[in-house]
Design a protein that fits this description.
heterodimer, A: Alpha-Beta Plaits, Alpha-Beta Plaits, four-stranded antiparallel beta sheet, B: alpha+beta, CBS-domain, nine-stranded antiparallel beta sheet, 14 helices
Chain lengths: 129, 510
């Protein structure tokens, strides 16, 4: 599962994530991180399901971290998309690829909403919500 | 050329079969499959025509327009469509709108390519023009709204389309490059390429046995013609190009798309499809060439040099590029196209359908295209300013062990801001500026090596001042040490040197 973790000023300096990894043995993967003295935002992938996942999420909440589920990463206007491929190789997580029939494939699970695809799309077929 | 090869069929015979409704047409992909399953002999015997297609960014594209005369009439000397400048060095109401012409109000977002797409889509476009007024054309200003139906002619004339193949791009530098080959990530972060490879028209007849002046083609969803070799046509090296024309009014915006490359500019994606009549065995063989057989260079766009001098990182086939990953050394680098293979396939299929339906007949070229042409670089005559002409050779340097206070007094005494730091052999290992010294003072640092910048932006003596000035602006620095191949400091170039010794146009003032 992919979530966004929002650290407020009070907790930004604590090693919360490392602590939870040690406690739960779930190898949380950081996909994107923006941290400064005021606040921090991490996009992480949590390779767990069921009770284990619930445990991880509640530990974050107890530590004062706001947990946001990833609702929508990016929007692709399929009428505009020419399937050129310009967005594919810059994508850092390989969320974009060609399908068998050479149309564009998008794996939302891998997307970290970095927005580079929206920048490079020559016909503005990709936008960030 | 075709004298020593037995003719299998003529274009007249093929057209007769199209009329009768028993012509055999395959797309280039289908031809490849047939050759794989049944062999080239059978394929050459059975197949009359192989259709090809490509759909990519083709910057050398544009449209000749005739607006018609207003009353009173105007001799348009300047003209804009949706704020995009139209070339007006033609008769009163004729103009040429090029794909890369940028909007004066929207910049990179919108340009000639977009206007062409809007016209083809039937959208309204704002026409604005100015003139000095003459006795025969008294009007001096015009502003109105037009659609493609209002134009007398809208003729797409593209000086260079349909590159036979195109070198792929990567980036060895440590910063993102924004190019006409798309966004290139640092440290060989990705590879981009263009062209449909095994579907590419000129790859299927590289000897120009069937493609020539007057060849009827699929262009932008309508009918077009090859009107000659394209600019930069370089057939001998395998980089042939075509000049094409067609009636924009008959075209379809699905196959003409205005596009914009981030921080580069605008262009037009053009769909071109060419029928290859299988006149003889040699054409049958080239028509069956596969992605695996078509090789291009991957070039490093980090070098600010002429395209053909950009270092070649690797030679690869279109098959490797299209696989999505290419090995550079032992590293797997993601690769992706900028042109659409899916659209190229659709174009080859559409052309096939037209021929089978009997609505598209093949033409015999009036003249072949040149098979020999040299693509020459532009030589710069006269003196162009090099770093060596402007740099200060009496460069003051320091050693890493130097005391900060003595360094500070050196800067004051010589009236300079930049101090390259060298090792005992005079090789560059760092740089300090007066700003670094101020910082050192504030932080109570003592030795130079504690405060110097170790990653130094440098220049070579033979580099153009223009290129180095752009580098300084990009890194927001005011001076660069000039080094030789062994990294010995031989001079220093500062923005002061440039502004003092250079006046616009790169000329040295006395």
């Amino acid at each position: 599962m992919k979530v966004k973790l929002i650290y407020s000023r009070g907790v930004v300096e604590k090693p919360i994530l490392a602590d939870i990894v040690l406690k739960t043995n779930v190898l949380i993967n950081i996909l994107e991180a923006k941290v400064n003295a005021q606040k921090g935002e991490l996009v992480v992938s949590i390779p767990a399901t069921g009770d284990k996942l619930k445990e991880v999420l509640s530990l974050f909440k107890e530590a004062g971290v706001q947990v946001q589920e990833f609702v929508e990463t990016l929007r692709i206007n399929w009428d505009k998309c020419m399937a050129c491929g310009a967005c594919i190789s810059p994508c850092p997580t390989r969320a974009l690829s060609f399908k068998e029939d050479w149309t564009l494939g998008f794996d939302e699970e891998k997307c970290v909403a970095c927005g580079i695809c929206a920048t490079v799309c020559p016909v503005k077929a990709i936008t960030m919500p | 050329m075709s004298k020593n090869v037995e003719e299998l069929r003529s274009i007249d015979e093929i057209n007769e079969k199209i009329r009768r409704g028993d012509v055999v047409v395959l797309t280039a992909e289908e031809m490849i499959k047939l050759v794989e399953s049944s062999g080239i002999e059978i394929a050459a015997k059975e197949v009359d025509v192989v259709t090809t297609g490509t759909f990519g960014a083709m910057c050398s594209s544009g449209v000749f327009l005739n607006f018609g005369h207003s009353d009173p009439p105007i001799k348009m000397t300047k003209c804009w469509l949706n704020d995009v400048p139209v070339y007006k060095g033609l008769a009163a109401v004729d103009g040429y709108l090029g794909a890369t012409s940028l909007s004066e109000t929207r910049g990179f977002e919108y340009g000639g390519g977009h206007v062409i797409e809007d016209l083809v889509s039937g959208k309204e476009v704002v026409l604005r023009a100015e003139s000095y007024g003459t006795d025969c054309y008294p009007r001096r200003h015009i502003e109105t709204v037009i659609t493609i139906d209002d134009l007398n002619q809208a003729i797409l004339v593209n000086p260079r389309n349909c590159y036979q193949r195109y070198d792929a791009a990567t980036n060895s530098s440590d910063r993102v490059l924004y190019t006409y080959m798309g966004t290139l990530l640092p440290n060989y972060g990705n590879i981009t390429f263009s062209g449909a490879g095994q579907l590419n028209p000129l790859c299927k007849d590289p000897n120009y046995e069937t493609i020539g002046l007057g060849t009827r083609i699929f262009l932008g969803g309508g009918i077009g013609y090859i009107i000659g070799e394209g600019t930069q046509h370089s057939p001998k090296s395998g980089y042939g190009t075509l000049m094409v024309k067609g009636d924009l009014k008959q075209m379809n915006s699905r196959y003409l798309r205005g596009a914009s490359f981030y921080r580069y500019g605008t262009t037009l994606y053009v769909g071109v499809g060419i029928p290859i009549p299988i006149l003889n065995m040699r054409v049958a063989k080239t028509a069956a060439l596969k992605d695996e057989d078509i090789i291009v260079n991957i070039r490093d766009y980090a070098a600010p040099t002429r395209p053909d001098l950009r270092p070649i990182v690797k030679k690869v086939s279109y098959a490797e590029l299209r696989s999505g990953k290419v090995f550079l050394g032992d590293r797997e680098v993601p690769s992706s196209s900028l042109s659409s293979y899916r659209m190229a396939r659709e174009i080859a299929e559409t052309l096939k359908k037209w021929i089978l339906e009997g609505t598209f007949f093949l033409t015999k070229p009036i003249e072949p295209l040149p098979r020999q042409r040299e693509f020459k670089p532009l030589k710069i005559r006269g003196k162009e300013l090099r770093v060596g002409d402007v740099m200060n050779r009496n460069v003051v340097t320091a050693k890493p062990s130097d005391d900060i206070k003595s360094v500070a007094s050196k800067l004051v005494e010589k009236g300079i801001d930049h101090l390259p730091v060298t090792d005992d052999e005079g090789r560059l290992i760092g740089i300090v500026t007066s700003w670094d010294l101020a910082k050192a003072l504030a932080q109570n640092k003592r030795r130079l090596e504690e405060i110097m910048t170790k990653k130094v932006i440098t220049a070579f003596e033979k580099e153009s001042v223009d290129v180095v000035a752009r580098r300084m602006a990009r890194y927001n620095i005011s001076g660069v040490p000039v080094v030789d191949k062994l990294n010995h400091v031989i001079g220093i170039l500062t923005t002061d040197d440039i502004s003092r010794k250079v006046v616009g146009g790169g000329r040295v003032t006395p």
